[in-house]
Amino acid sequence: MLSGQLVIILLLLASVAVFSVAETDQTFRATEGRKMLSVAEDVAATGGVRVSLTDEVSSQRLLAIFAQSAQNLSGADFVIIADHRGTVLAATDPDQRGLPLPLGESRVLSGRAWVGEMAIGGVDSLVAHVPVVSRDGGILGIVAAGRHSPDLFQAVRQAPEYPLGLLAFAAFLGIAGSVLLARRVKRQTLGLEPQEITRLVEHREALLHGVREGVLGVDEQNRITLVNDQALRLLALPADSLGRDIDSLDLGDRARDVLTGRTDGVDQIVLRRGRVVVLNRMPISSVGAVVTMRDRTELVDLQRELAVHRDTTDTLRAQAHEFSNRLHTISGLVELGEYDELQRYVQRISHHSEQWHAEVTARVQDPATAALLIAKSSLAAERGVGLRLHEGGFLGEIDEELSADVVTVLGNLVDNALDALESTKDAWIEVELRHSDEITVVVRDSGPGVAPEIVEEVFRHGFTTKAARGGERGLGLALTRQICRRRGGSVEVHNADGAVFTARLPLEEA
């Protein structure tokens, strides 16, 4: 930076000098040209010069006196008198006598005065030519008066507006200012040179785009100042997001709240385009904030698989518990000798089980969904909750992908209903499945319902809030909504003597 500043100062001084020289040269030609023309006209108008030119041999000494006198009085560098042929008769330099007077583009031989630049004695000079005219109009001779043109140093020194002292003072100020500026900038850059700063930035960019975690920086006005490729992928942001306002991007309310700091906390969960993303926002004083993000989609999928196994275990445990109770009852009836009652008891429990299995398999032709309903029935029975199918419900055969989505949605809704009915007497859950151009899953319960102020919150936030009082909440509902939206469907909830969740899943994924 110091070298660059010094080069700029030198160029500036050189430019000032060039303009100064040009202005001085223009002033010199204008002022001295008129002065030399006046000197030559005075000499040419002198009567003694006319007389002396008629007798060139005897009057050369007298012409030399006229020339020398005019030079001394006017301050001209030279005054030359030549005859009508252009031969020098008198000059301040004796060596020029007898030589032809350089005329160049001069029009003096045609009887006109002329002012211009030419080389006199090998030196560039400003010359004025004036003809000496006789009484009858003939040309008797030529008078030339001139000044030597100043060189570059003389022109700068003679410039009235840009003297050498001013240029030297400007150079001193410029160099001192450049040194101080370079020292200040070096302190601000922690002593790093430009090449080191460049390498540091390149290293930061490589590190930023090489990590698997997403990194996004925002300023105090919530404009994106830094974003890596992983953050663009996780949040499904456009490539031109840098410099844009967070609120102007196509993000959900939940993501905007976390990125702008309206929602704070550690490990905030955001659902974005089929991904479960965990965000952590760290404010930075006078700069803004840095948001780091991790993809938890695979972890959530693993949790869902574990939840399926857990549900299977719970179902087996419930069935084992129920089977154990029945065995104890049968054993007691045998010991009491109540064989008729034993026969009726066995017929009753087998009939109930067979009836539920027959009802499920008759109305639900998808094996995975039917198995889920049978398993959830045992779990609900253990919790003292009755699980039933709506009379008009029916689900035909569907493809494996849609079956997996239906099982996930139905399982989450039934689990949330069971959680809501933990402290409810005479509790029941009703499941209705409708199969048309879309699969409709309706889950009703006899619980307290969903508080009106959190009807949207239970889906948007995807985690338990303090305002939630109906029990139908958690990440499962957020995932349910995500699955429905991914297929181009929807999920909603309303209260009708309890919570009623309705999920719609089109047959073809959007």
UniProtKB/TrEMBL annotation:
Record keywords: ATP-binding, Cell membrane, Kinase, Membrane, Nucleotide-binding, Phosphoprotein, Transferase, Transmembrane, Transmembrane helix, Two-component regulatory system
Entry's transmembrane regions: 162-182
Annotated catalysed reactions: ATP + protein L-histidine = ADP + protein N-phospho-L-histidine
Record flagged with keyword Phosphoprotein: yes
Statement: the UniProt record of this protein carries the keyword Transferase: yes
EC number of the protein: 2.7.13.3
Annotated membrane topology: Multi-pass membrane protein
Protein name: histidine kinase
Record-level Gene Ontology MF annotations: protein histidine kinase activity
Organism per entry: Saccharopolyspora mangrovi
Residue intervals of the Histidine kinase domain: 409-509
UniProt cross-references to SMART domains, sorted A to Z: HATPase_c
Signal peptide as annotated in the record: none
Top EC group: transferase
Subcellular location: Cell membrane
Pfam hit, one: sCache_3_2
